[in-house]
Amino acid sequence: MQIFLVGGAVRDRLLGLPVKERDWVVVGSTPEQMQQLGYRSVGRDFPVFLHPETREEYALARTERKTAPGYRGFDVDALPAVTLEQDLMRRDLTINAMALDSEDAIIDPYGGQRDLEQRLLRHVSPAFAEDPVRVLRVARFAARYAHLGFSVAHETLELMRAMAESGEVDALVAERVWAELVKALGERTPTAFFEVLREAGAMPHLFPELEALFGVPQPPGPHPEIDTGVHTLLVLEQATRLSPSPRVRFAALVHDLGKALTPPESWPRHHGHEKRGLAPLDALCERLKAPKDYRRLASQVMQYHGLCHRALELRPSTLVDLLQRLNALRPQHDLEAFLCACEADARGRTGLEAREYPQADHLRRAREAALSVDAEPFLRQGLSGTALGQAMREARIHAVRSQVCRAGSGP
Q1: Is the pLDDT of residue 71 over 70?
Q2: What is the pLDDT of residues 114-172, one digit of tens each?
Q3: Shared-domain flag, residues 325 and 227
């Protein structure tokens, strides 16, 4: 039995990056032998075991043969005769198809070190085309390593295009697409994820609501970049700078989906796009089974980012009502995430990336003023239900007017 460190741990070690987790391949063993040694079986589709002490994953070397569409349509062979080179050949990219032996010697049968040096994401073999998840993974690796100068090899892009054209990516299940999307949004350059998918022709299959934004014009005054799709990626870029949260980045990404539904005769203006976008947002979230907290924040940003941009001009009553709609007057609220996504939208415009966004502080002050209103005096008056709510609203409006707007930061 031989044990090798494989995959991402080897890749990141060679790149000089922190190794977050280690995966191991075992050559020349059987499931029975692994269990006799104290390893616990956890694999569902192929033999994977947890080390009895470190709890790291040890997988038996295996080969895979395509037997049906999708990413689970494989026949797996994990017999002791499978070699390390055969196991590495089934992997997606050359930079992920390297191993270290017990002497720290690198085994690199497919040129992973060369591609690391050339900053290329290149597929190992034509078998890449058998697994549609790899289209998403390549795009995600582009998002992870774009800042290091990595790009996708031409021949790999061609293979990805063929997979999109053949409909192979349509076999991806929603949960896997969502999982890869969230991982990509958490990477250093998530815009690269969508740029690669567009180059590969996979966006109409995976994210048609986003692809529909490209080519839709906006007024050149507030939007010097003009193209709505370009603006969307600029907003995502700004959200990435402002927050590490995938939820904030997702909300920023989808905030303008309604502009794809504006009748062409109304271009470049998009009156009412905030409401029109709710239908494609629901369709996207339903299809990908997005969690409720992602949907909720995205819906808030979509509907109210325009009001947030005009916060300095809003009447106290409108400010209070906006805070109420955002649930910002409750102990558990998402106001900071909302403000971050709105600021990203304001800055996600060519030449306006460094603009100030005083609207955020204005809304924060309005919230503090509204929260200074105590319900106790109204309860002592015997008010309840709708009457109590109306009295609280009026008092909050007065507090915002006196504490925020009259201080010179609004009407």
Answers
A1: no
A2: 999 999 999 999 999 989 999 999 999 999 999 999 999 999 999 999 999 999 899 89
A3: yes
Q: Are residues 215 and 202 in the same domain?
A: no
Q: What is the pLDDT of residue 75?
A: 73
Same domain, 1 and 142: no
CA Rg value for the chain? 26
Whether 104 and 131 map to the same domain: the answer is: no
Q: What is the DSSP letter of 93?
A: B
Cβ atoms of 42 and 48 closer than 8 Å:
yes
Are 101 and 4 spatial neighbours (Cβ–Cβ below 8 Å)?
Answer: yes
Burial of 69 (0-12, 13-18, 19+ CB in 10 A): middle
Characterize the bridge pairing of strands 99-100 and 106-107: antiparallel
Give CA–CA dist 95/85, Å, rounded.
14
- CA-CA distance, 127 to 302, in Å (whole number)? 41
Residue type, 335: L
Pairing label, strands 48-50, 40-41: antiparallel
What letter does residue 39 receive in the DSSP assignment?
P
- Confirm if 192 and 150 have CB atoms less than 8 A apart: no
Window from 16-25, 70-79, 373-382 with minimum mean pLDDT: 70-79
DSSP code of residue 85: H
Q: Which residue has the tokens 């994210």?
A: 207
**105: CATH:** 3.30.460.10
Residue corresponding to tokens 């102990």: 331
| Residues whose CB falls within 8 Å of the CB of residue 18, separated by 6 or more in sequence, listed in order | 12
Helix (H) or strand (E) holding 26: strand 23-27
Question: Among residues 277, 265, 283, which one has the least CA distance to residue 306?
Answer: 277
Q: Are residues 322 and 217 in the same domain?
A: yes
How far is it, in rounded angstroms, from Cα 62 to Cα 127? 14
Model-level pTM greater than 0.70? yes
